[in-house]
Design goal:
heterodimer; A: mainly alpha; Amino acid/polyamine transporter I; two-stranded antiparallel sheet; 2 strands; 74% helix; B: alpha+beta; five-stranded antiparallel sheet; elongated
């Protein structure tokens, strides 16, 4: 563990930035008009998962998950599990990076090689993460202000242009409650809320005199970002209607593109791009930091910062190798049942709950 | 250059390799001989021999360096009174006589008895007069510092519309007195050391005891004491030797030549470092927003001041990102420019033979050349440069079809923006980084600009100035301290002074290296 401390506000900001990076994707659109509802249900599941991670942190507030896995499961099994988690984080990082690169490619750089786009982000991320969690948190605080102004001004512009048609959100329950719940638990719960497991690597750095405050900050951050995500999705649907949103890879982009004021404020793609880059940067940095600090802890390496170079390189290569095209990436990895049942559910839900049960009996 | 001096010093015959004897002798002629030998019989070292007392007359000498002493003081209060001293020395010759002279005869403010050659030399060379008396193994140093100085004038940098018109001079005593005149508080403390093996430059730190955090004061002192260097010619030397991070385009110390700015910062809990021989005084710790504040902000009303500060932040962004954004939009993101504007720009660029990035680089470099040329020329020729620059480079370049008028406008706005930043230290960093941003914009468009911006912000967030995070109070976010940053709230609502310099915010800086530079 590096010697660093972040405060609760910084944790809040990092959580919100991490969550909001998914604001660009058509989240929970399988539930049609009720996409926002499935996001909110997913959020409630996310709150429960967060409480699981939080309880584990409460049992071992000063050590990394990689270490308390060894305490709970024994040295050998714990190390293997910790190693698997690190691999899982690297996979997550690569997936986020791939997604990011593909979005940029579609958005503005049709002829630029994916490698160049991904490498650009990796270079900047490695530079930042190498400076430690404190610098990452402070950078987050500055960009949170930027995001706030972007969000406020774009909402104002959307309202001023008169784009919102509430009728587009009706009928609300077209697909039925069963489908809504299925979407919530198979999609929105895992991405973005389940991915918060990376923050178990960051909790030990939070400087807090009472762990309940951490719970409060975490719940507030998840609640806030869940509401913002649901609200954004509702606006997307109300502006463009369900059929366009479900066919669009980036519904928010289409929404922002339909802003037009005074014949001059139009085609504000740059807004979307800033949100994309800020969100992608923080999500990727946090996951990469989690992977690096976990590796350093597991293999007893003193300097975390040196690990970032090789890990960044591995993730870059993995991101290029994991799928051959964007559709393959979307359907074989992001929305595939195989990935859901073999990695997401075990790593995000089953193993943490199992660990919590063991911790409960061990610390009785 | 320095090694050249070192070399010539060693071969020179005047350089005496044998060390100074520790204490002075009682024989006057021996002392004077040593003095002459050590100073190489330099003609500005004046040795005035005289005889004092009556039956027997005792030989004595007054030694001073002409030019750095106040001649009137020496003539009237040293030489004249000594010659007129006609008491009988009796058997109190030597040791006791010197005490008596110090206490009863010499009418100069500060007078000290010294026995060691090293401190005598230091005292002599900083403008004091020495009094030797035959038979005494002691000498007197009388405070006679003086000589020609520049008068207090209006500062040439950081001039204001409203506010005090006086600026610092090259004399440290004058400068510190100017601050004393503003803050009449016994807690205004000054500590002094000498830095530089050859120059023995006076460096003083000034702070308000109780307001300044002791950790910061200790850190400043520690870093000053660590300096090992032959010469200090300007405050820039000290700044570069004590700053936290050398590898950074951003300044982590603030410099100013205005006494009111120094006083304001001392009251906020900062520490000032005065260096003799320069009107520029350093202030530590510095935070980033500080470089966008001017002393006018505190004198004008708060709404005007706040608007001006937002304008300055905007100006900084223009001077940093102006050409880069234009290059990115022209090269990669046509769809983001409104159609009519795009048509106008495209029509202008039709005849331009270069890609946008080269066009921008040509104009930016030309502008930097013009600025550098105008900076050091005599005023009479300076106007020629502006005519040649403005007319030939601007007008003719467009007419010849080398650059488009839009690019010229962008470069001109950027140039004016970089002059409008209140602090030259930050304006020059933006000037340097602008080129990096332009290259990034040309290679990856807005994505490149954003990446470079992320790198810059991460770097800024990693900086610390004497333990205070550089981006405070924005990152880490301190809501209580936002009253005097980009906004300035009215004076009555500033309940307490800012807590930025609080000990809670001071943390050990990771990138701190003990910097010692041996030339």
């Amino acid at each position: 563990m590096e010697k660093a401390q972040i405060n609760l506000y910084q944790l809040f900001v990092l959580l919100v930035l991490f969550e909001l990076s998914t604001i660009l994707a058509p989240l929970g659109i399988a539930a049609k008009q009720a996409a926002w509802l499935s996001i909110l249900i997913g959020m409630i599941g996310g709150l429960v998962l967060f409480l699981v991670y939080y309880r584990l942190y409460c049992y071992y507030p000063d050590v990394m998950p990689t270490e308390y896995m060894q305490i709970l499961l024994g040295r050998f099994l714990g190390s293997v599990l910790a190693f698997l988690y690190i691999l899982y984080f690297l996979y997550l990082a690569a997936r986020v990076l791939r997604n990011f690169g593909e979005m940029l490619l579609i958005l503005a750089y049709p002829v630029t090689p994916l490698f160049i786009l991904n490498a650009g982000l990796v270079v900047v991320t490695v530079y930042t993460v190498r400076k430690g969690i404190e610098v990452l948190a402070r950078t987050g605080e500055l960009f949170a202000i930027v995001i706030f102004f972007l969000a406020a001004s774009s909402l104002l512009l959307i309202v001023l242009t008169g784009l919102i048609k509430v009728t587009n959100l009706q009928p609300m329950m077209e697909v039925g409650m069963g489908k809504i719940l299925e979407t919530a638990f198979s999609e929105t719960l895992m991405i973005p809320f389940g991915e918060l497991i990376v923050f178990t690597m960051i909790f030990p750095y939070v400087n807090v005199n009472h762990s309940k405050k951490l719970r409060k900050a975490g719940l507030m951050a998840i609640g806030f970002s869940g509401i913002v995500l649901a609200f954004t999705m509702a606006i997307n649907i109300s502006v463009m209607g369900v059929s366009i949103v479900s066919r669009s890879p980036f519904p928010l982009l289409s929404t922002i593109r339909s802003i037009e004021i005074a014949g001059f404020l139009e085609r504000l793609d740059v807004y979307f791009m800033m949100v994309l880059i800020i969100g992608g940067f923080f999500k990727f940095s946090i996951i990469l930091y989690g992977a690096a600090t976990g590796t350093a802890d597991l293999f007893k390496i003193k300097e975390t910062s040196r690990l970032i170079y090789p890990l960044g390189f591995i993730v870059l290569m993995f991101s290029l190798a994991m799928a051959s095209s964007y559709p393959e990436h979307t359907y074989k990895i992001l929305h595939s049942d195989a990935v859901l049942f073999t990695t997401s559910i075990p790593f995000l839900v089953v193993i943490p709950i199992m660990l919590l049960v063991i911790a409960f009996f061990k610390n009785r | 250059m320095f090694s050249f001096f070192e070399h010539s010093k060693k071969t020179s015959k005047n350089y005496s390799p044998e060390p100074l004897p520790k204490t002075i002798k009682s024989s006057l002629s021996d002392n004077l001989a040593l003095l002459k030998q050590k100073t190489g019989k330099s003609p500005d070292i004046i040795i005035r021999s005289l005889k004092i007392g009556n039956q027997p007359k005792v030989k004595a000498a007054v030694v001073y360096v002409s030019g750095i002493v106040d001649t009137q003081t020496i003539n009237e209060f040293l030489i004249e009174v000594l010659i007129n001293y006609k008491e009988k020395p009796g058997n109190e010759a030597g040791q006791e006589l010197i005490e008596k002279i110090a206490e009863e005869v010499v009418s100069v403010g500060s007078i000290k008895t010294e026995t060691e050659w090293s401190s005598l030399f230091e005292s002599l060379l900083s403008g004091n007069a020495l009094i030797f008396i035959d038979g005494a193994a002691k000498a007197l140093t009388a405070g006679t510092k003086g000589g020609e100085k520049r008068a207090i004038q209006e500062p040439s940098t950081q001039s204001t519309v409203r506010g005090s018109r006086e600026g610092f001079t090259e004399s440290m005593e004058t400068n510190m007195a100017m601050v004393r005149r503003i803050i009449k508080n016994p807690n205004l403390w000054i500590e002094s050391i000498k830095i530089g093996n050859q120059t023995r430059t006076d460096v003083s730190i000034m702070y308000i005891n109780g307001s300044a955090e002791s950790a910061v004061i200790e850190e400043v002192k520690k870093r000053l004491k660590k300096i090992k260097i032959d010469s200090i010619l300007e405050s820039g030397y000290i700044e570069q030797l004590i700053e936290d991070q050398t590898m950074s385009p951003f300044p982590t110390l603030y410099y100013t030549e205005r006494p009111d700015i120094v006083a304001g910062n001392l009251l906020e809990g900062r520490v000032a470092v005065f260096i003799n021989g320069t009107p520029f005084t350093l202030l530590a710790p510095a935070v980033f927003v500080q470089f966008f504040q001017a002393s006018d902000d505190y004198y004008t009303r708060f709404d005007i001041a706040t608007a001006t500060r937002f304008l300055r932040a905007f100006i900084f962004l223009i001077s940093l990102l102006g050409p880069a954004t234009f290059v990115a939009a022209i090269t990669y993101h046509h769809e983001m420019i409104p159609t009519t504007l795009l048509i106008v720009i495209a029509a202008q660029r039709e005849s331009v033979p270069f890609p946008a990035i080269f066009e921008a680089l040509i104009m930016e470099v030309t502008f930097e050349i013009l600025r550098e040329a105008g900076l050091r020329l005599p005023k009479a020729i300076g106007s020629t440069v502006s005519i040649v620059g403005g007319l030939v480079v601007g007008q003719a370049a467009v007419q010849a079809g080398i650059v488009s008028p839009t690019m010229l406008i962008i470069v001109a706005i950027t140039a004016i923006a970089s002059f409008a930043t209140p602090s030259f230290a930050v304006a020059i960093s933006a000037r340097l980084l602008r080129f990096a941003f332009m290259i990034c914009a040309a290679s990856l468009g807005f994505y490149g600009i954003m990446l470079a911006l992320f790198m810059m912000v991460a770097h800024l967030c990693s900086l610390r100035s004497f333990g205070i995070p550089y981006m405070a109070p924005f990152a880490p976010f301190m809501p209580g301290n936002l009253g005097d940053t980009l906004v300035r709230i009215p004076w009555w609502s500033m309940k307490k002074k800012t807590q930025l310099m609080n000990h809670k915010n001071i943390q050990e800086s990771k990138n701190k290296k003990s910097q010692s530079l041996k030339t």
